[in-house]
């Protein structure tokens, strides 16, 4: 008695865009958890189920070009994190954006650290520009939520970009601390950080003050801003009394 052999799946030729996307997905799966210099093209080829020469057909510059393309793909995903409908309380919008951002950080832990901390042999002026582009895009998205995209003054722009930098730094520390505290606590703390920076800047910048009043008008008593105010006001009142 003979057993029929299991038919081998036929090789399917992919279009250029589809094959390129396949290679980028394979590369990102490796770069997400290891520094670029620790990933070989042979490993990328194995994960993608292709030959090494095929990678060079789509990325003639080898691993460096592949890494930069994978980074660009990741950057596009990060830019979308802060794209949020301009409705509802600002703190709720920021919380949803941070949920997406921190999910990306969680899923690309080592790669995210290598990317932002620098020092990788794969780092070039192009990769630096790509990362800076993500920061600027995030800042513009936040300013859009404040109703001041393209018209924000230097104080407010500096405040928002400072917060974006703080989000990055906190994310790196969170990874270094073995993802503690829980991600929801980190998100809420970063939202509070934004509100605190915004209100402090509003105290000395009229444009920020107008934007802050408009943003707080949309908040609810049980929302992030309301809860933060009830926690902070007694501390501020006590400090004022001492002065």
What does this entry look like structurally?
α1 crosses α2, α7 crosses α8 and α8 packs antiparallel against α9. The longest helix is centred in the last third of the chain and has 23 residues, at 154-176. The protein folds into two domains: 13-70, Orthogonal Bundle (Arc Repressor Mutant, subunit A); 82-238, Tetracycline Repressor, domain 2, CATH 1.10.357. With 243 residues, the protein is an all-alpha fold. 71% of the residues lie in helices and 0% in strands.
Number of helical segments with 4 or more residues: 11
Number of domains: 2
> What spatial form do the alpha-carbon principal axes imply?
elongated
Order of helices and strands: HHHHHHHHHHH
Beta-strand portion reads under 5%
Overall pLDDT confidence: 86
- Which regions contain 5 or more consecutive residues with pLDDT less than 50? 1-11
What is the CATH top level name of the largest domain? Mainly Alpha
Ends distance: 96 Å
Number of strands: 0
């Amino acid at each position: 008695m003979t057993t029929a052999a299991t038919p081998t799946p036929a090789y399917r030729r992919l279009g250029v865009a589809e094959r390129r996307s396949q290679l980028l997905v394979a590369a990102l799966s490796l770069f997400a958890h290891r520094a670029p210099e620790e990933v070989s093209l042979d490993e990328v080829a194995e994960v993608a189920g292709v030959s090494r020469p095929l990678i060079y057909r789509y990325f003639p510059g080898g691993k460096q070009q592949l890494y930069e393309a994978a980074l660009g793909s990741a950057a596009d995903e990060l830019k979308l994190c802060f794209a949020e409908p301009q409705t509802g309380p600002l703190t709720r919008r920021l919380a949803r954006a941070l949920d997406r951002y921190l999910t990306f950080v969680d899923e690309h832990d080592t790669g995210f650290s290598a990317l932002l901390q620098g020092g990788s042999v794969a780092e070039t002026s192009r990769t630096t520009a790509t990362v800076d582009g993500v920061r600027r895009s995030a800042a513009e998205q936040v300013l859009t939520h404040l109703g001041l995209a393209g018209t924000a003054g230097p104080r407010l722009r500096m405040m928002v970009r400072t917060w974006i930098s703080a989000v990055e730094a906190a994310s790196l520390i969170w990874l270094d601390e073995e993802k503690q505290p829980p991600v929801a606590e980190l998100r809420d703390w970063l939202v509070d950080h934004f509100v605190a920076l915004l209100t402090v800047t509003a105290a000395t910048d009229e444009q920020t003050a107008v934007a802050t009043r408009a943003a707080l008008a949309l908040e609810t008593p049980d929302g992030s801003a309301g809860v933060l105010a009830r926690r902070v006001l007694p501390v501020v009142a006590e400090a004022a009394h001492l002065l």
